[in-house]
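Pipeline run #58 for the internal structure catalog. This entry was flagged by the ingest filter as a single-chain record with no existing model, so it goes straight to prediction. Upstream metadata was stripped on purpose; only the residue string is passed forward. Reviewer on rotation: M.T. Logging verbosity set to normal.
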Amino acid sequence: MHRPLDDLPPPAAVLLDLDGTLVDTVETRIQAWLATFAEWGIPASRAQLEPLIGVDGRRLARDVAAAGGRDLGAGQDEAVDRRAGEIYGRLNRDPQPLPGARELLATLDAHGTPWAIATSSRREQVAASVDALQLPRSPTIVDGTHVEHAKPAPDLLLLGARELGAKPDATWCVGDSTWDMRAAVAAGMVPVGVTTGAVGADTLREAGARLTVHSLADLKALLP
């Protein structure tokens, strides 16, 4: 019987997004951005922010500001992104793993498949969420501070593949946003979408997902 994975190369390595993929933090991200834009006097709405979660924070700041008629000056996109991270850090007090996250990572370890967390967030923003996963070892993490351009640019994912010693075309990229899928396509990786964030399966497929699942538990069940 045909299985969804029959058309995909087996993963030599797996890169996983953090917010909305491994941990249930998309709402917290949205609240942090809304509070930040309010401080800066930049109009922003939930509907505007939802599809932007997961993109490079500096780009998000510029795009929302431009939509509100503001042109952020040199370095201001960095300042807005940093402030959003500070507020997020205060709000992200009890992040929860999404269904199947810990089990999928344990399965990858059991299979000897190397994996890493690849997030556009700054390093100082990820500790609480990674701690919430209660992993038996410290994971490999590549974040937005490691590259000049985060998602949807491929730089972050290509760095992750190098860290794991894997070829891009044999690496799966698992994420909940269009930015994850676009970055994976640009990196020549296998984009796998999970509908635990702010967008649905059709939107993920339009962005390049070759496989979509409702949860990481569903993805674990598909693995051999």
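catalog note: Residues 5 and 178 are 21 Å apart (CA to CA).
catalog note: Strands lie at 13-16, 115-118, 140-142, 171-175, 190-194, 211-213.
status: ready for reviewer M.T.
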